[in-house]
Amino acid sequence: MYPKDPNVTIKYPDTVPEYIAPPVVYGTARSMGPNASVNLNSNLTWIVTVHTGFYYYVRLHFCEIKYRMMNMRVFDIFINGMTAQEGFDVIGYTKGGGIGVPVYLDFIVFFPNMTSSSQQHIRIDLHPNISSKPVYCDAVLNGLEIFKLNDSTGNLAGLNPTPLLVPSQTADLSQILLKNGSKKGHGSAAIMGGVVGGAVGIALVFLAVFFALKKKVMLQICVSSPSNQSRLFSISEIKTATKYFSESLVIGVGGFGKVYRGDINGGSTCIAIKRGSRLLNQGAHEFQTEIDILSKLRHRHLVSLVGHCHEKDEMILVYDYMANGTLRDHLYKTQNPPLSWKQRLEICIGAARGFHYLHTGAKPGIIHRDVKTTNILLDDKWVAKVSDFGLSKAAPELDCTHVSTGVKGTFGYLGPEYYRK
C-alpha cells in the first residue's frame, strides 16, 4: 500500500480531466510489494460480484507515485482470465510524463442471463511482465471503477456491484468487449481507489451516476460459459476459424489430436485450436481435465485457454497462439536457427516456474504427469509456457499415504511428487 505522499503533486494532463478521479485516488495505490519471487507466482487481484444480463464498464486508474523512469515495473492486466492489456508501463503510457501523471484504461464486460445464477463475478488480475526486463517485478493499481450499464430496455434493476472478500477459484468468464470507438449508456458505479494515508487497503465506494462514455476501448469478444472461465465456441465458429479444418493450417499433431492455427474476431486474434480425435478412449476425460485446470489457473508460464467447443461429438480446445511453437521444434532435427545459451536458460527457468506454480501455488497442487519438450510452448517473445494438462491430477495432501503411480502420457519427465508417499 502506498499512502499519500505530500511531496507528490497530481498533474492532470489534457486527456485526463480532474473530474475523472480526485487526487486522493491517484495519490495512493496498492502494489504487490518488493518480493520478486513471490510476485512472479502471484497476482494482484480484485473480485466484484455483479448481476447477469447487463454490461459493465470497467475503468482502471493508474498513476506512478514512486518511480520516475520507464521500465521500472511492467505488468499484464487480465479480466476474468482473459488478457486485457499486455506489458503495461504506467510511465510509458503517459509518454514519459513522470511521477504524478494519471492515466486510465476502459473495458466493457458483458454477462448474459443465466438460469443457474443471477450473480457472477468480475475478476481483475495484475501480474508482472518480465519480457521487457523491468527493474522491479511488481504491479500497481490506484483505483477501480465498475459502472453498471442499462440493458436494451433501459432497465437497471438489480443491486450495485459488491466486493467479494474471499477470492473465488471458479469465477465464470464474462464477455469482454474491446472495440475502438465509443459507447454511451447510463449506469450505477462502484469505485475502488487508494484511501488516504495510513489506511491498509483500497476503499470501495458506491456512487449512483449518469454519464456519457466517451473513452475508446480496445476489444476482444468472449462468450460466457456457466461452468468455467473459458469462452464457449460454436462448431461453426471453429470451422470458420480453421477454414473447415484445412490441412494447410495444421501446426502440430499430439496424443489428443491435431492442432490448427486459426483466426477469430475478424482476423485480429490468432489462436491455436486442438481438435480431439474421436478414436481416443480417454479423450473426454483429458478434455474436461484440461478445461477444469486451465479455467482456474493463471500464470505467466502456463498456456492460456481461450475457450472450448463441445458440440456434435466434437471436443475442441482453443488456446493463445504460440508463435515459436514447441521447445522440441528448436532442439531436435530442426532447420530453425539454434537457440542461444541465454535463450535456453531463460526457457528452462520459465518452464520451471510454471511447474513450481503448479506444485506449490495452485490449491490443491497439480502434478502434470506428461512433461516433455513438446509440451513446453514458446510465444512470440520466447516466453516458455507449460501446456497439455489433460493427464494432470491433483497432488496428494501431506497426510496422504498413497497415490496412484500408473504411467501416463508418452516418454518424458515425471515430477517426484507423483511418487511421494
TrEMBL record:
Protein name as annotated: Receptor-like protein kinase FERONIA
Coiled coil ranges: none
Protein family membership: Belongs to the protein kinase superfamily.
Superkingdom of source: Eukaryota
Organism the protein comes from: Acorus calamus (Sweet flag)
PANTHER family from the UniProt entry: LEUCINE-RICH REPEAT-CONTAINING PROTEIN DDB_G0281931-RELATED, LRR RECEPTOR-LIKE SERINE_THREONINE-KINASE-RELATED
Compartments reported by the entry: Membrane
MF annotations from Gene Ontology: ATP binding; protein serine/threonine kinase activity
Keyword Nucleotide-binding: yes
Membrane topology reported for the UniProt record: Single-pass membrane protein
Entry keyword set: ATP-binding, Kinase, Membrane, Nucleotide-binding, Receptor, Serine/threonine-protein kinase, Transferase, Transmembrane, Transmembrane helix
InterPro entries xref list: Kinase-like_dom_sf (IPR011009), LRR_Rcpt-Like_S/T_Kinase (IPR051824), Malectin-like_Carb-bd_dom (IPR024788), Prot_kinase_dom (IPR000719), Protein_kinase_ATP_BS (IPR017441), Ser-Thr/Tyr_kinase_cat_dom (IPR001245), Ser/Thr_kinase_AS (IPR008271)
Main localisation: membrane
Binding site for ATP: 274
